[in-house]
Amino acid sequence: MNESEKIPIPSLRRLSAYLRQLEVLSASEVTHVSSRQLANYSKVGDATIRRDLTLFGKFGQRGVGYEVDDLISTLRVILGTQRRWGVVLVGAGALGRALMRYSGFDQRGFKIIAAFDNDPKKIGTNLGDIPIHSLDELESVIDFTAARIAILTTPSQHAQEMATRLTAAGIEGILDFATPSLEVPPESYVTYVDITAHLEELTFQVSGNHP
Amino acid sequence: MNESEKIPIPSLRRLSAYLRQLEVLSASEVTHVSSRQLANYSKVGDATIRRDLTLFGKFGQRGVGYEVDDLISTLRVILGTQRRWGVVLVGAGALGRALMRYSGFDQRGFKIIAAFDNDPKKIGTNLGDIPIHSLDELESVIDFTAARIAILTTPSQHAQEMATRLTAAGIEGILDFATPSLEVPPESYVTYVDITAHLEELTFQVSGNHP
DNA sequence: GTATGTGAAGTTATTCACAGCG
DNA sequence: CGCTGTGAATAACTTCACATAC
């Protein structure tokens, strides 16, 4: 995939942050918010917020601001989460199991519907209501559930093989915790999360070994 | 903190990725690598790699490239991970416990040395060799261990209070899984990881609701 | 008065392209 | 010759500042 009609990735990522803040405001019965107010809740400038939003349309009212619940709906439509997404998870180790137990996905439109592992002790069991399957069933379960998104939490040695099988089986987006720079077909999309890289960012800032 | 001597954050984050790749190459007994080769392993151009590295010094040899193990050491010095960092973890829920079990930190220079939770059933127990303390002991344990980095995996309602206490107790860097835009004193540093935001990035790309 | 949406300006980051060194 | 290091050029992103709308 990708062409994405020229949406800058930084802008796209900020949309999720705006959505979080708006959900908090909505829960506090706030009905309207200006870009200035929204900017107060983050490190982003008000002009950036307005520009980000106008990449997708005109959602504000001059002199008033944005209607909170409307903007939430709009952002969900843009991000594709006004509908529910079934997600499969490959690798039911410590991190995979933690994600399977994480309750926050539900309210954000995601549901882990199946997990896969190669440990015979886990295969056939459930964690909560999520069944853990053998890797042999990867393709058939993806086909049956029509899942399009996968979370990859295997050891890094197996990550590329799993990514190849996942995309061949119809998965279009992979959230990769396992290894940097997975090779996937051009019509699919990967985002990589490296927790140690974030810690390294902190130690760089904290230890100040700057030139 | 921060002034960071003008290191662009994107460059800084790529250093961690280079380090991962170099570690793989070193394990495969590769002794030298050119920026071009390194670029093949990621989506970054070779000129970007050279420019990133020269922000910190001149580490290559013309006509040859970079010596893999040397560059690994150099990057660790830059990132501050040639020494070992004790890290405290606040919130021993599913995600916190998964991170406590994660073995990859050790080889990257990090060690979770203590965890904190408010659940009486957890307090006083160990997970692996990591003791779980009462939150009452937060300040004293940070003081005793001289920890400077913390991982925050509490429910979001408690995150700000915990961040305030952590920084007051001497923590300088927080890896925040709990809530966006924590307020911290200017001499401390926060990096935020939002797993659902990454999933939203995928659903945006996959569902193609682009203008 | 207040706040959006947006050209224009400014800033930051990436890529080009090549001189210079091993 | 190959590959780094780097000015210069380009591209990407952010911020300014204001006309416009409510």
CATH superfamily of the largest domain in chain A: NAD(P)-binding Rossmann-like Domain
Widest beta sheet: strand line-up of chain A = 5-6-4-3-7-8-9
Average pLDDT taken over every residue of chain A: 94
How many strand units of chain A?
9
Order of secondary-structure elements of chain A: HEHHEHEHHEEEHEHEEH
**Proportion of beta-strand residues of chain A:** 15-25%
User: Which shape of chain A, going by the Cα principal axes?
Assistant: globular
Taking pLDDT < 50 over at least 5 consecutive residues as the criterion, the unreliable ranges of chain A are none
Report the structural category of chain A.
alpha/beta
Largest chain-chain contact?
A-B, 67 and 67 residues
The figure for the number of domains of chain A is 2
Written account of the structure:
- The structure is a homodimer of 211-residue chains.
- The first copy, chain A, has two domains: 4-78, Winged helix-like DNA-binding domain superfamily/Winged helix DNA-binding domain (Arc Repressor Mutant, subunit A); 85-197, NAD(P)-binding Rossmann-like Domain (Rossmann fold).
- The first copy, chain A, has nine helices and nine strands.
- Helices cover 44% and strands 18% of the residues of chain A.
- In chain A, helix 1 (9-27) packs across helix 3 (46-54) and helix 1 (9-27) packs antiparallel against helix 4 (68-79).
- Chain A has helices at residues 9-27, 35-40, 46-54, 68-79, 94-101, 104-107, 138-145, 156-168, 195-207; strands at 32-33, 66-67, 85-90, 110-117, 126-127, 130-134, 149-152, 173-176, 189-192.
- In chain A, strands 5-6-4-3-7-8-9 form a seven-stranded mixed beta sheet. A two-stranded antiparallel sheet of chain A has the order 1-2.
- By secondary structure, chain A is α/β, with parallel strands linked by helices.
- The model of chain A has no long low-confidence stretch (mean pLDDT 94).
- The first copy, chain A, starts with 8 loop residues before the first helix and ends with a helix.
- In chain A, strand 7, helix 8 (156-168) and strand 8 (173-176) form a beta-alpha-beta unit.
- The first copy, chain A, is globular, with a radius of gyration of 20 Å.
- The first copy, chain A, binds a DNA duplex (22 and 22 nucleotides) through residues 8, 10-11, 34-36, 44-48, 50-51, 53-54, 58-66.
